[in-house]
């Protein structure tokens, strides 16, 4: 029989809390409001206290910090052993994990190890018995609902960006415990920093982003021209645009690209897959141009324009240019 507890596995790197951990904390609180029970953060680190205290302060949740030298960098086998033991001791109703490279590595293994259910890439949920989790499939074109099996531990991975972090009223309490956690056959050799990007989209105030709907690299001149009309404008891209070699990787926005929060994000011919929107949903104003009125991007956008890009962008560029010239 599971308890009503909700455990949140805190993600961190090189001793620093990752922002997704605070989103997970907010997700845990939302879940507790409808499912009842308490929420607790779980930190696996070496040393663990400073990350645990940072999380307890920023989230307001109580934290159990598990310490073992094999947690000095992410190690799937050590994580699995420690978490499986914790789950069998506490029998939580839910164990929430970020849907990141590490999360999607150990979450399914954990679900198997504890004979629980596993719902991955969750972006929201609906109250009910059992709770139904929302997840997008086929690049965001299909929304599905999945329900965890009742009375088993529900392992859930949450899409980064799905929930906004909340401000805590007070810091949570921290308990640090040394645990056994063999690393099995794997050993973390260290972290290697990716080469610095020549384009830092996070500094742009306006991002004009090109999607597959642009139709080909020969039409990207429209995107570049529009971006150049703003003082701090930059060109962004969806993954297919980068995969097809129309633009270099440094322009990619989303799960495997950059996370941005400009004043204006103009999505041109982008369908709105969650892997893209999670990288730009914090923009102050999102404007989408798409020929398909049912495109998912219109749910993320504040303003939607159903129109062919190749007709709309030249008109917009001419209007903005005209306005700029009149100002000079
Ligand atoms: C693990 C993983 C990680 C991923 N990471 C990322 C990521 O970081 N970033 C990312 O972007 N994607 C990522 N993806 C891919 C993602 O799932 C989508 O496939 C991708 O975002 C779709 O790109 P798109 O919207 O440009 O193309 P499509 O989905 O093909 O959409 C093209 C859109 O253009 C519209 N259109 C067509 N012609 C016109 C026209 N003439 N005028 C106006 N509109 C038009 C269409 O109606 C359509 O909505 C990832 C996927 C996985 C599985």
Describe this structure in words.
- By secondary structure, the chain is an alpha/beta fold.
- The protein has 2 domains: 6-178, Rossmann fold; 201-327, 3-Layer(aba) Sandwich (Rossmann fold), CATH 3.40.50.
- The chain contains 9 helices and 16 strands.
- A 9-stranded mixed sheet has the order 9-8-7-10-6-1-4-5-11, with helices on both faces. A 5-stranded parallel sheet has the order 13-12-14-15-16. Strands 2-3 form a two-stranded antiparallel ribbon.
- The protein is elongated and about 70 Å long.
- Flavin-adenine dinucleotide binds next to helix 6, helix 7, strand 15 and helix 9.
Record the SSE blueprint.
Blueprint: E1 6-9, E2 12-13, E3 16-17, H1 20-35, E4 39-45, H2 49-59, E5 63-67, H3 76-90, E6 94-98, H4 103-113, E7 117-126, E8 132-137, E9 142-146, E10 154-158, E11 174-178, E12 206-210, H5 220-228, E13 233-237, H6 239-243, E14 264-268, H7 274-277, E15 285-290, H8 297-300, E16 303-306, H9 309-327
Parallel strand pairs: 1-4, 1-6, 4-5, 5-11, 6-10, 7-10, 12-13, 12-14, 14-15, 15-16
Antiparallel strand pairs: 2-3, 7-8, 8-9
The structure holds flavin-adenine dinucleotide.
Features:
alpha/beta, Rossmann fold, 2 domains, nine-stranded mixed beta sheet, five-stranded parallel beta sheet, binds flavin-adenine dinucleotide
Summarize the structure.
With 328 residues, the chain is an alpha/beta fold.
């Amino acid at each position: 029989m599971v308890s009503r507890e909700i455990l949140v596995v805190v993600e961190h790197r090189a001793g620093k809390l990752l922002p997704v951990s605070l989103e997970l904390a907010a997700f845990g609180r939302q879940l507790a409001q409808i499912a009842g029970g308490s929420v607790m953060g779980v930190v696996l680190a070496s040393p663990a206290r400073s990350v645990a205290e940072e999380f307890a302060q920023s989230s307001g949740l109580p934290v159990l910090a598990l310490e073992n030298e094999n947690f000095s960098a992410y190690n799937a086998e050590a994580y699995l052993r420690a978490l499986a033991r914790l789950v069998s001791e506490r029998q939580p109703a839910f164990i929430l994990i970020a849907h990141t490279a590490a999360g999607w590595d150990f979450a399914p293994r954990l679900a198997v190890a504890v004979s629980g259910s596993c719902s991955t890439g969750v972006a929201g949920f609906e109250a009910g018995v059992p709770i139904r989790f929302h997840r997008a499939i086929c690049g965001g074109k299909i929304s599905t609902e999945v329900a965890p099996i009742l009375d088993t531990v529900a392992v859930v991975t949450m899409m980064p960006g799905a929930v906004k972090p909340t401000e805590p009223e007070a810091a949570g309490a921290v308990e640090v415990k040394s645990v056994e956690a063999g690393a099995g056959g794997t050993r973390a050799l260290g972290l290697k920093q990716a080469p610095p990007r020549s384009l830092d989209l996070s500094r742009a105030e306006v991002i004009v982003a090109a999607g597959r709907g642009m139709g080909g690299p020969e039409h990207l001149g429209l995107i570049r021209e529009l971006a150049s009309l703003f003082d701090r404008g930059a060109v962004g891209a969806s993954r297919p645009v980068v995969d097809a070699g129309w633009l270099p990787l440094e322009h990619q926005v989303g799960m495997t690209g950059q996370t941005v929060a400009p004043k204006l994000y103009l999505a041109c011919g982008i369908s709105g897959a969650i892997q893209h929107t999670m990288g730009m949903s914090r923009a102050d104003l999102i404007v989408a141009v798409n020929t398909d009125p049912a495109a998912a991007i219109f749910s993320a956008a504040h303003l939607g324009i159903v129109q062919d890009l190749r007709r709309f962008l030249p008109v917009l560029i001419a209007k903005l240019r005209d306005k700029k010239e009149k100002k000079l």
